Amino acid sequence: MRPLPSGIRLSGSPVQGALLRGTAPRGVTALDLDGVQVPVAPDGAFLLGFNRDAPPLGVLTVTLADGQTMQEPLTVAPREWRREFVAVAARGGVLSEAFMARRKPELEMIEAARARQSDSAGWRQQFIWPATGRVSGIFGSQRIYAGEPGSFHSGVDVAGAVGTPVVAPADGVVILAAPTPFSLEGNLLMIDHGMGLNSAFLHLSAIDVKLGDTVRQGQQIGRIGATGRATGPHLHWSMKWNDARIDPQLLVGPMAQ
């Protein structure tokens, strides 16, 4: 871990889509990254997440017991995202009232789930792949339609046959197990790993856990499917630290085949 002038130590370097682990020395009472409060464990351990489009400079504000603050500038390295240029414009159209009536409560459930905080220590673990198979989609990739950027891919996709087991990448608590398939995500499962870090698993054919369950790393939590808006059976695994979209592939080693 490299030390900063405040005594904060960070493992790794800030880069777009990355999650860093850090340690704060005694006497540090609060941290925030660009205005976002950073939870700190009793032993001083914490996480810092950098969004896919994080700006080149972040500021970590360190508050000491005597009320003094220090600001640590963090240079965030950019990444070269995979882009596909399409000559035609994206399909437009006004979303129907029926779709929006269905979508609104789904989004509210997702927002409420992300607001749930657990004391899980899964964030301390070395994460593992939740499924094995061909990586068919990578984090951050984006289509450009006639010069207009579309939304970026928010996770990593693993292709597999319907029914292929999906396991917990780390310990956690189930914060959402969709009672019925969502219009876009299909059968959606979300797990909180603690310290503001959570995982979402989309398009499942089955969910094998329920809301509030404590899950252990490697435990089967569901099965690959093609529910919701999916072109074929695959697992979409996305991660967030607070509101920052994190690249799951940066947290796991090479996939065991």
From TrEMBL:
The organism of origin for this protein: Sphingomonas ursincola
Source superkingdom: Bacteria
Pfam families noted in UniProt: Peptidase_M23
Positions of the M23ase beta-sheet core domain: 152-248
Protein name: M23 family metallopeptidase
Gene Ontology terms, MF aspect: metalloendopeptidase activity
SUPFAM superfamilies in the record: Duplicated hybrid motif
PANTHER family hit by this protein: M23 FAMILY METALLOPEPTIDASE, PEPTIDASE-RELATED
